[in-house]
TrEMBL record:
The keyword Hydrolase applies. This is Peptidase A2 domain-containing protein. It comes from Chionoecetes opilio (Atlantic snow crab). The keyword Calcium does not apply. GO terms for molecular function: aspartic-type endopeptidase activity. GO terms for biological process: proteolysis. PROSITE patterns: ASP_PROT_RETROV (PS50175). Keywords: Hydrolase. Residues 19-32 form the Peptidase A2 domain.
Length: 146
């Protein structure tokens, strides 16, 4: 189920703007597109540079490098947080990270944290019995295990 966008008040410098953002509990960074930056009247030249790191999308593909980032205060329903917002070319929908969703009370504190790393286990290395090579040995093993 896709979450509903929320209207966040974004305070940057002396100006406050409203921005529809999609809560993304699988994201570890909050992102907007360059067109949103223009809507917020934040000049591209004012962005801070980011270290060259690889950022992955939900499907595991690599994102193009960020144009830069800026800091702003996000406000929603009486809650607020300071956010580092990364700007990317081509982002159609601004995304709120898991951490910012938590700080703005969009999700419950009991909401599970996203998996940051998936460890694959080689099941063959876990075998406690030697492999069987004959049908009768396989049948005996099956009957013994079940």
């Amino acid at each position: 189920m896709t979450p509903t966008p929320v209207c966040v008040h974004l305070v940057h410098g002396e100006s406050t703007s409203r921005l529809q953002m999609l809560p993304d509990t699988g994201a570890d960074v909050t992102v907007i597109g360059t067109r949103h930056l223009q809507m917020l009247h934040i000049p591209l030249s004012s962005l801070q540079s980011l270290p060259s790191t690889t950022t992955l999308t939900a499907d595991g593909s690599v994102m193009t490098p960020a144009v830069g980032c800026f800091y702003a205060t996000l406000r929603l329903h009486g809650k607020s947080c300071t956010a580092k917002i990364q700007v990317y070319e081509g982002i159609q929908t601004p995304l709120l990270s898991y951490g910012h969703c938590m700080e703005l009370a969009i999700i419950s504190p009991a909401f599970p944290k996203p998996l940051l790393e998936v460890k694959h286990i080689n099941r063959c290395a876990e075998m406690t019995h030697p492999p069987t090579t004959s049908p009768s040995a396989a049948r005996a093993h099956f009957l013994r295990e079940l």
